[in-house]
Design brief:
- With 241 residues, the protein is of the alpha/beta class.
- Helix content is 47%, strand content 13%.
- It has helices at 24-34, 49-59, 75-84, 103-109, 121-132, 140-152, 163-167, 172-182, 187-194, 198-212, 217-226, and strands spanning 2-3, 15-20, 40-46, 63-67, 90-95, 113-116, 137-138.
- Strands 1-3-2-4-5-6-7 form a seven-stranded mixed sheet, with helices on both faces.
- Helix 3 (75-84) packs parallel to helix 4.
């Protein structure tokens, strides 16, 4: 693993990022893309999950971009260790389309969001800033596959957990907002669909998080999947989420 910089110093005002992936070229490429934004500083790179956890403990970055499929300690376990340690670092999972078996595990482990590796440079930079600001990033393309895998097709829905009780506390409007968030919709998109002010959607989300005891939007989505809030989709359904 490699490291640069540290807490404080000249780059303290920037969003400090660690990039974890077992592909050296991808790590280098992602780092270059991020550093085209002068508000982002890549402070370290890791080739596996164990190294990523070590860097996060030592450097306390704001965000770690985490590949899920790495040798030894994979991204899901690394995410779990970072979350369990109470580190301030927020985890953005990077995944490939149709290879999201680990995304569900990463969300449950504490990831704050997930994004396709093929995302544009602009989308990647924006996602880092979004996580650093305390919000979550849920790529709609990955979410579609996750919904199909977890709740929609082939009877693969996991058994209900105690989250059901918490979901029952939500009002009809709050359930509607959470369903749309779980489909990967942004606050702006939810506001447009429900004909609400974006500030109202944000208020609903804050109340949802408090009622179901979720630390952020990503965990709320995981709870909604596990608790059966997301309705099954007809396989012939052709619309987007």
């Amino acid at each position: 693993m490699t490291a640069a910089g540290g807490p404080g110093g000249p780059g303290a005002a920037r969003v400090r990022v660690v990039v974890a992936d077992d592909d050296a070229l991808l790590r280098a490429g992602v780092s270059l893309v991020l550093e085209t934004d002068d508000r982002i500083e890549v402070v370290g790179q890791a080739a596996d999950g164990l190294a990523a956890v070590g860097l996060c403990r030592a450097l306390l970055p704001d965000v770690v971009l985490m590949d899920v499929r790495m040798p030894g300690v994979d991204g899901v376990e690394a995410t779990r260790r970072i979350t369990a340690a109470g580190l301030p670092t927020r985890v953005l999972v990077l995944t490939t389309f149709h290879h999201d078996d680990y995304v569900w595990g990463a969300l449950r482990a504490g990831a704050a969001g997930f994004l396709l590796k093929r995302a544009s440079a602009e989308r990647l930079v924006d996602a880092v800033h979004t996580l650093a600001a305390g919000e979550s990033v849920l790529d709609p393309a990955v979410t579609r596959d996750l919904v199909a895998q977890v709740v929609g097709r082939g009877g693969e829905q996991p058994p209900p957990e105690p989250e059901d009780v918490r979901l029952a506390q939500l009002t009809a409007r709050e359930r509607e907002v959470l369903r749309l968030a779980a489909e990967g919709r942004s606050n702006r998109e939810i506001a447009a669909l429900l004909v609400l002010a974006e500030s109202t959607v944000k208020t609903h989300m804050k109340r949802i998080l408090a009622k179901i005891d979720a630390r952020d939007r990503a965990q709320a989505v995981a709870i909604s999947y596990r608790g059966g809030l997301m309705p099954p989709r007809d396989p012939s359904y052709g619309g987007g989420y």
